[in-house]
Amino acid sequence: MINAIGLMSGTSLDGLDICFAQFLKEDSGWKFTILKAETVSYPEVLENLLRNAIHLSSQNLLALHSEYGFYLGKEVKKFVSKNNIEKVDLIASHGHTVFHQPYKKFTLQIGDGRAIKLETGLPVIYDFRSQDVLMGGNGAPLVPVGDEFLFTEYDACVNLGGFSNISFKLNNERIAFDICPVNIVLNQFAQNAGHKFDENGNLARKGTVDCDLLKKLNDISFYSQTYPKSLGIEFCNAEIFPLLYGKDHFDLLATFTEHAAHQISEVLNKFKFSKVLFTGGGTYNNFLIEKIKIKTSSQVVIPQKEIIDFKEALIFAFIGVLRYRNEINILSSATGSFCDHSSGVIA
């Protein structure tokens, strides 16, 4: 039995997810129990730094890498103290993605794990993606290994976060890939309209779908590429945002919600899934979920709030446990690397 804390910061910058879970390997497979979990909102200054990290100079980015690592360590200490947690075997930290360019053999998640260790005094495992990228993989998605061992009852698992991604078993292999941007775009234009995010999709409901724009979005070449494939903010800056600026905020939200629902349902229908688990912040966007349900015959399963909010942090804790045990935690069938491997730097 291993007690682990998983730390996750998504591209939509909703906050830092902290998940404390217990993992037990039995003859029938891995079992987990979420013991405590919470989302910590970022201070405004730090959120702005993270949001604009891609534009920082190399010196300032390195400074933020350290600063954010110490911040993560301090938040873990508060979490452990507040919840009277007595035994933690390890911390697994995803970090915050700044650059993701696997075709150039690099990806960067900031938040120095050594700083977390210095703050907490606990073993820390971090930088899970870089090794996979060096091995010819996309460095993403990594969550499928958790779907493979912890959520076996579903035909597929879809995460609706900054980007949507899917994981499923095909011909006895775990396949996974990013589908399309979701909250990273919707949040931006909700904020432009004076809201932090589009709660329940209510802003998008006010808009009208721009059919010409919708066709341009759906015609982007990424969607016709074969998997494995992954997305980053660079994709949005190059392919998505240039199409969207200068239009009515509500119409943009309506159109992009329609686009996301179309792309997600296209994948579900292509593989004819029966039962699909949906998690991530986008699951609370009722308008998006309604549109997906209309467009697919797959059963859309929305789990309890704890799994919706903390599935990724839970799985990164699990990925850390596998690395701690020196077991495979990256699936080449999902990332495209030349073999399965055990990845993560241990501090």
Description:
It is a single chain. The protein is of the alpha/beta class and 347 residues long. The protein has two domains: 2-138 and 316-346, Nucleotidyltransferase, domain 5 (2-Layer Sandwich); 153-306, ATPase, nucleotide binding domain (Nucleotidyltransferase, domain 5, 2-Layer Sandwich). Helix content is 42%, strand content 23%. It is built from 13 helices and 13 strands. The chain has helices at residues 44-51, 58-82, 113-120, 130-134, 144-150, 183-192, 202-206, 211-218, 233-244, 249-271, 286-295, 305-324, 332-335, and strands at 2-9, 16-26, 29-40, 90-93, 96-101, 106-110, 124-126, 156-160, 163-170, 173-181, 275-279, 299-301, 345-346. A hairpin with a 4-residue loop joins strand 5 (96-101) and strand 6 (106-110). Helix 5 (144-150) crosses helix 12.
